[in-house]
Specification:
- This protein is an alpha/beta fold and 569 residues long.
- It folds into four domains: 41-197, Alpha-D-Glucose-1,6-Bisphosphate, Chain A, domain 3 (3-Layer(aba) Sandwich), CATH 3.40.120; 203-308, Alpha-D-Glucose-1,6-Bisphosphate, subunit A, domain 3 (Alpha-D-Glucose-1,6-Bisphosphate, Chain A, domain 3), CATH 3.40.120; 319-440, 3-Layer(aba) Sandwich (Alpha-D-Glucose-1,6-Bisphosphate, Chain A, domain 3); 443-565, TATA-Binding Protein.
- The chain has 17 helices and 24 strands.
- Strands 17, 18, 19, 20, 21, 22, 23 and 24 form an eight-stranded antiparallel beta sheet that branches. The chain has a seven-stranded mixed beta sheet with strand order 1-2-6-5-3-4-7, with helices on both faces. Strands 9-8-10-11-12 form a five-stranded mixed beta sheet, with helices on both faces.
- α4 (63-80) crosses α7 and α8 (199-213) runs parallel beside α14.
- The radius of gyration is 24 Å and the shape is globular.
- The two termini are 36 Å apart.
- GO terms for molecular function: magnesium ion binding; phosphopentomutase activity.
Length: 569
């Protein structure tokens, strides 16, 4: 506690503004536990950059922690690009303080002689990713905490390719940041280097989104959509994209259309949570809509609800949406003819159906660690290959490579194209998904995410993962464990034969059990939230679409058995 107090007292100097000093002094005087949580560590970069609760302290998002990161990034850019005018672009979402924090970040860049393009108002994360290359920038920043609760904010860094930073840049940038003290931050802005941007970049992005997401679907006049931005940034793009693509029967949930960092109508602005889409689903039932689409605050994730076999609205998960969107894109590419260099991609905790489908179409399949930055890295690392599409289980998808991160804007349009065409063909989005199960195997997934907050929570997560590794299970739901994949050691071990294989991916705190019948259980800590996550994948043969309900119930029962065995229910 002495070290924490010393760090806290260092924030009482005149370098820090008066409000920060008062906040820290009050914590010292009245709340030692909160003080400990705010100062026991420095905020770190995870799979999605730097993200955390706002407030005073080294373990909080504020002008000084972001300023220090920006100063370190400025130093790195200046060392890397010594003969060029360095340019960065900055966007921000609807969260409390995002606009003022974005301005602070812009001013630190400008104080270091770096040209800044700053969006005039909130914009989506995919537009920021697009803008990096569109404006020939060396880096991009978006101020967002994605789908986290209202008290959070964050800072994601993008590189010249429009993708999030990856090795070796991330480690080098972090080293540069860690070498600094807060007093090294240059806040003396040269405002002549800050240029406000808006409509020109919007037009370029929206035009590309419509071009990449449109496939001439039939039946648009007879296709009803309910859309909600969940108080976030997608209201700036998705309604216009849908309109230009020919979708005129779009009902926007007005109560959730206004950007608001308090997210007053939802418990969590996360489309992975059914509650977040409940207002839109209710409206869809009321007006007889065909599809619901809802996006998270920075518009990189999308949730989709469609009518199931009983005619009721049902939310499809990220794996299901990813499979159907990928198959549609592969079918369209097949119509034009494959060049032989196409690939699709997903992450190690997402559905194995993606690999099965890639083999069926004869295209390459690539898998990555969790976090969309790794899929973006694939595109950069294999310039001779053509990325068709891909995503991850956490409701993120990317159509082609004009954006290098999850893109709920273009993916929303793609989902509508699939569903509208399916309805015109006498089918539906849901029925087309069941056809995928018949063709490639019925894979059903389930996610358990346990929240463990604060310093004690971090230790609890660490211990849970340690126990999961050191006390391996012999079987899962009656099927013997065959492979144990340890991404910390980069080794996959066949526990039946003793065979070992090297995992050719960067080291990561992930452990996966795979049984003889293909059941998989993965465990990892979240890189952006105080959570530990368990991913369960089961599978079965589906001979005919008419057997769907029966097989679905069987897989549900199997998942419940696994949850009970692992004490996760």
């Amino acid at each position: 506690m002495n070290a924490i107090l010393r760090t806290a007292h260092s924030w009482l100097t005149d370098f820090f503004d008066e409000n920060i000093r008062k906040e820290v002094q009050n914590l010292i005087d009245t709340d030692p536990e909160e003080l400990k949580d705010r100062f026991y560590k420095n905020m770190e970069f995870g799979t999605g950059g730097m993200r955390g609760m706002m407030g005073a302290g080294t373990n909080r998002i504020n002008k000084y922690t972001l300023g220090k990161s920006t100063q370190g990034l400025s130093n790195y850019l200046r060392k890397t690009y010594t003969e060029e005018e360095i340019k960065v672009v900055i966007a921000y979402d609807c969260r409390h303080n995002s606009d003022t924090l974005a301005r602070t970040v812009a001013e630190v860049f400008a104080a270091n002689g770096i040209k800044v393009f700053l969006f005039s108002e909130l914009r989506t994360t995919p537009e920021l990713s697009f803008a990096v290359r569109h404006l020939n920038c060396h880096a991009g920043i978006v101020l967002t905490a994605s789908h986290n609760p209202p008290e959070y904010n964050g800072y994601k860094v993008y590189w010249t390719d429009g993708g999030q930073i990856v090795p070796p840049q991330d480690g080098e940038i972090i080293s540069e940041i860690n070498s600094l003290s807060f007093e090294d931050i240059n806040f003396s802005s040269d405002d002549s280097l800050i240029q406000i941007i808006d409509k020109d970049v919007d037009e370029a992005f929206i035009s590309q989104s419509v071009e990449k997401g449109s496939f001439g679907a039939a039946g648009k006049d007879d296709f009803k959509i309910v859309f909600t931005s969940l108080h976030g940034t997608s209201i700036t793009a998705i309604p216009e994209v849908l309109k230009r693509a020919g979708y005129n029967n779009v009902t926007v949930i007005s109560e959730q259309a206004k950007p608001d960092g308090a997210f007053p109508t939802v418990v969590s602005p996360n489309p992975e949570e059914p509650e977040a889409l409940s207002m839109a689903v209710a409206k869809a039932e009321e007006i007889g809509a065909d599809m619901v689409v809802g996006t998270d605050p920075d518009s990189d994730r999308l949730g989709i609800a469609v009518r199931n076999l009983s005619g009721k609205m049902e939310i499809v998960n990220g794996n299901q949406a990813m499979v159907l969107m990928t198959r549609f894109l592969l079918d369209k590419q097949k119509e034009k003819g494959f060049d032989g260099n196409e690939f699709i991609a997903t992450t190690i905790v997402s559905t194995p159906m993606m690999e099965t489908m890639a083999k069926a179409y004869g295209v390459e399949f690539k898998t990555a660690l969790t976090g969309f930055k790794w899929i973006g890295k694939m595109i950069k690392d294999f310039p001779q290959s053509k990325f068709v599409g891909g995503g991850e289980e956490s409701f993120g998808y990317m159509v082609g490579d004009f954006v290098r991160d999850k893109d709920a804007v273009t993916s929303t349009l793609l989902a509508c194209e699939i569903a509208s065409q399916a309805k015109a063909n006498g089918s539906s989005f849901y029925k087309d998904l069941i056809d995928c199960y018949v063709d490639y195997g019925f894979y059903k997934e389930h996610l358990v995410a346990l929240t463990k907050k604060g310093m004690s929570g971090a230790e609890e997560i660490k211990q849970m993962l340690k126990d999961f590794k050191e006390n391996p299970v012999d079987s899962v739901a009656g099927s013997k464990v065959k492979w144990i994949e340890d991404y910390n050691t980069s080794m996959a071990t066949n526990v039946i034969t003793g065979e070992e294989k090297t995992i050719d991916l960067p080291k990561s705190n992930v452990l996966i059990y795979e049984t003889e019948d293909g059941t998989r259980v993965a465990a990892r800590p979240s890189g952006t939230e105080p959570k530990v996550k368990f991913y369960i994948t089961t599978n079965a043969r589906l001979q005919n679409a008419s057997d769907y309900n029966k097989v679905n119930a069987q897989l549900d029962t199997k998942i419940q058995t696994i949850l009970s065995e692992l004490q996760l229910s």
